[in-house]
């Protein structure tokens, strides 16, 4: 093939001693993208499974596509477009710059680090680069996206040694960075709908206001306001499940996320143990609150508004927690990250349950952080090695017991 | 009889080129070789020089670490070459065979009555002692030690593995004699494990603790069987012997002649007529498989644990099969994105799950680049042992001896991790990492 000849011809330039050898990793990255390498096994097993990290990461990207496409459509819909195509196009135009910025910033850093370390380029950022825009609310300035991505890749990943060595999920770290560093640009309580003038040249005009940005309360905030009537309405639940609600780009449609979940579970990329236990944990904590939560009407007359809100939130049906906000997205795509989650099978059950429970706990008890999923996963990322430590210690204890039995 | 032990974890990789149930006699090879590299931690010291005449059973070299351990010639003839590699490292000693084989007069003892030490001496002198593997560490057994038990696996579950029941159908008396010999070496039990439903005459072998196993590879690995019969704890020593070597030992104690002939399988997609061959240990592979085309890898052993053998190389001491598979040194356009119907994967990201009965013709391509540990929970599915594979390997990588010991270094050998290495999308060289860890442990203890 002509292309192969061309690659072989320019290869020496990038190899050790070549003029552009300082771009070796970059060249290697592109070469292996074009052609699966011709390396053969030298030691150990002579044949190998044809699965590799490239395929693993691409599978996650594929699993993210339904949520991403729906996110684009929903974005336009929220902005007031009624036509499906118009709404989608609007969302695409809104989201594409964020995706591009995230990939360009993140990959440049990855390439630079790989080059300095003389490693092959790791594919991990293919996933992170798409996750970052999907968990950011729309309307976040692009420079915040760029800064958060850089922070997540450098501080979250490269300082630990790159993909496979990181403690925290890089995409969530990016979101946390933006959340705490640029609160005015994003918050968990309100979601920004995009709209207005920037899209006029495309001929896209929303049916609604001509404002550049309009904001509205997310269902999470509505839940927090204790709108009992809101949760009682079945059509609201359906909207939340199918995703016709405001929120970060990828997180709104539980259905689209579940399609991704099926792909991840079938291909074995994500752990079913983690995924199931996160949902179970959320449901369990929701049920606990349902049981202990006081009836807001029975609160004393001098109860503070916060107390009333909390009581109302406690009475939100447990299953609601699973479909609103970032819960489903976090459970399927974030908590299951094999590197930052618990690594042992027993550990995964504990880790997942605690992620789910903490997420609902933070949501309900602390009104300042209605989006508890991000915090709970990051917190459990930090605890995961500890969980694994105890699981592995038990394995060691079983082995040591063997010695006593013999003697 | 104990109850059947069923293992759920593991994987049978179905490959093209299983050996047909037919035995051919391979012609006498131009030369036979004994290599110290077929064993772990042997520092060879030569006893012969080029041109010396040797008999079948004459010692060629011994291990400096333990001078009682002799390595003997499988045939009679003339030492034709002493092959050395870098830094004059001894690769092998080659012997050009006589037309008529002459067997060395070796001491022969009555196994039932002799002292244990006399039996040990007999095995050491014949060189058959080198066929006894000691765990932990997978080294040649220490003649001064006495094992807690001896384990023999009567089947091999590796891809394209030979069918021992077929291979050994004439050897029942020898196996019984061999087992009686092993029983004298330990105060504990001699365990024999066969595959449930394919037991041949193994159930009739006397004087052993008999077990049956069912499940997928690595169920035939003796290490996995030990784990489920009587786990190795710190301080334990157990020995294992390959079932074909048991037959050779049995033959030896009955005749007093070191007859190293054995049956091996020639298999793999590139084998012209996959079948069984009758050979003598250490034969030049060229005498067994003929001229091999370029672009074909000759493996002494199975595709997961065997060693690459040069076309003018020799059958490894522990190999009971030769596998021939194509080299995979080709580029594949956008390989990571392709459906790859012709390749095999345990992952649902490819389509092997659609064809559960398909036999694959797999090549030696690495199918990716080496990466750090990323996936979790995958390796444990392919090792039916209570061992956390990635934790053990990381302990080996950071050379933490305590952790290695605590996490199960004494229970596994590289062969047990071969399947994990096969499925690993990060392409980590697990067998080598574990071997390095074990060797470090031997050095330090």
Structure description:
- The complex is a heterodimer of chains A (407) and B (445).
- Chain A is mostly helical.
- Chain A folds into 2 domains: 1-48, no CATH class; 53-394.
- Chain A has 17 helices and 3 strands.
- Chain A has helices at residues 2-14, 24-34, 53-78, 84-117, 124-135, 142-154, 170-181, 219-224, 228-232, 234-242, 254-266, 272-292, 305-314, 320-323, 327-334, 345-365, 372-406, and strands spanning 35-36, 190-194, 213-217.
- Chain A has a two-stranded antiparallel sheet with strand order 2-3.
- The N and C termini of chain A lie far apart (68 Å).
- By secondary structure, chain B is α/β, with parallel strands linked by helices.
- Among the domains of chain B are: 5-14 and 132-255, Rossmann fold; 22-27 and 263-326, Ubiquitin-like (UB roll), CATH 3.10.20; 366-444, no CATH class.
- Helix content of chain B is 20%, strand content 22%.
- Chain B has 10 helices and 21 strands.
- Chain B has a 7-stranded mixed beta sheet with strand order 1-14-13-12-15-10-11, with helices on both faces. Chain B has a 6-stranded mixed beta sheet with strand order 2-17-16-20-18-19. In chain B, strands 3-9-8-5 form a 4-stranded antiparallel beta sheet, with no helix packed on it.
- Chain B is globular and about 65 Å long.
- The two termini of chain B are 38 Å apart.
- In chain B, 55% of the residues are buried.
- At the A-B interface, α2, β1, α3 and α17 of A face β21, α9 and α10 of B.
- β1 of chain A pairs antiparallel with β21 of chain B.
